[in-house]
Design brief:
single chain; 8-stranded parallel sheet; 11 helices; 303 residues; alpha/beta
Length: 303
């Protein structure tokens, strides 16, 4: 069976059906970046609980579907604009960035490209450098080309090696500069925004597979957790080589984030059988006395 990695997906927002479909489609590992939850948080404790979930419950929940879960830790650009709260969050980040399964500082960068966003982006780049972790950059959806160029300029200004930086949410307007400057170029296949799968095929045909990464960024919005395997299938149908598919939908993400020392292919090559009776802090995915590892393909929902 082919193996895929989705190196940018917000599974906190997804269902157990999504996890099952992802595993059946060949997704063996995922990276969940810390991000914006759709509305602003008002207290530092909300961030702390969220970070605890990323390194705890969600990691366990993914394992119950045979998927290896990693995460990134960071203060997203939107919430960097609440400077008083952002200062408190910055104090938390070193406590979580060194935990097991954390493969990068991210997703960080610019949204409206404000002075506050710039301040906390720079502080987090310094943290990544200090902890020798890769960086996952969120490039802005508005004025993307200028924001992408600025994101890379600031990385170099702070002494980061481009090979340690994954620039995400690229499009046809930004990819050439990102690759030319030696950074990783990630693409988010997200319905009606960012990048479509047919456009992704054309990008790979034009630029090849070196340092190009495909992800879904599936979240609480209308999005598709199977974007990576679906895009791989479309690449195959349209004549992209198996090796280029392997690189863009699996190996490049592994190579980039393995630089953290936290992500190893051996983590999923010899998996143990999933035991749904396992618990984390007394809780399991089996609610209401369900039987572990039961066949749940029936159309009848028991209660």
């Amino acid at each position: 069976m082919l193996m895929y990695i989705d190196p940018h997906i917000h599974v906190t927002s997804r269902t157990t059906d999504d996890y099952e479909a992802m595993r059946q489609a060949g997704i063996v590992a995922i990276i969940e970046p810390a991000f914006w939850l759709g509305q602003p948080r008002t207290k530092v404790g909300s961030f702390q609980d969220y970070f605890n979930s990323l390194v705890g419950w969600e990691r366990f929940r993914a394992s119950q579907f045979g998927i290896k879960h990693y995460c990134t830790i960071g203060l997203n650009s939107k919430e960097a604009n609440n400077e008083a709260l952002a200062e408190e969050v910055m104090e938390l980040l070193p406590l979580y960035a060194g935990k097991e399964g954390v493969v990068a500082i991210g997703e960080i960068g610019y949204d409206d490209q404000t002075a506050a966003e710039d301040k906390f982006y720079r502080l987090q780049l310094d943290l990544a450098k200090e902890m020798n972790l890769p960086v996952m950059i969120h490039t802005p959806h508005r004025d993307k080309k200028r924001g992408t160029t600025k994101s890379m300029d600031v990385c170099l200004e702070h002494g980061l090696d481009p090979k340690m930086v994954i620039v995400d949410h690229n499009n046809e307007e930004t990819v050439e500069e990102v690759l030319d400057r030696g950074f990783w170029a990630a693409f988010t296949i997200y319905p009606h925004t960012k990048m479509g799968s047919e456009r992704m095929v054309e990008v790979v045909k034009r630029y090849g597979s070196e340092r190009i990464i495909v992800d879904s960024a599936a979240d609480w919005g209308i999005s598709d957790p199977l974007s990576v395997p679906k895009t791989a299938n479309l690449m195959r149908e349209r004549g992209i080589s198996d090796e280029d598919i392997r690189l863009t939908c699996y190996q490049n993400a592994l190579t980039a984030y393995a630089q953290s020392g936290q992500m190893h292919e051996s983590d999923w090559l010899n998996p143990t059988a999933v035991d749904e009776s396992q618990k984390l802090h007394g809780n399991s995915i089996l609610r209401g006395g369900q039987e572990p590892n039961a066949d749940r393909r029936s159309d009848i929902v028991e209660n």
